[in-house]
Amino acid sequence: MTNNLQVARNAYMETVVKTSTNSVELLIMLYDGAIDFLNRAKKAILVKDLQEKVDNIFRLTRIIEELLGSLNKDVGGKIAENLEDLYIFCLQEISRANLKNDISHLNVVEKIMMELRDAWRQIK
What structural domains does the chain harbor? Predict the structure, then answer.
């Protein structure tokens, strides 16, 4: 991605996040972003583009870390604990995919991210 395109995309995403009033919408956007970076990482692995793989794995990891950090166990109780376990599992799978250049681990994470995103869409 060219530098200008990346700057424009970042500015757009910042504007979308700042103008969004619904936390469910923000969660859905995070899941969409995670799925996007995950698919980019899978493509990079398939074409053996190491830098692209690393960049997208990093972005994917940051999103899941953000999801993990946003959990409130006092309010969310058992659901938040279950999500924490899922996010940690996803981070482990991403690490395995990164180390082994094996997209099967990313496929597992993609399935989880899509199911969570779809569940939040139903709530919206």
Answer: 23-123 (1.20.120.340)
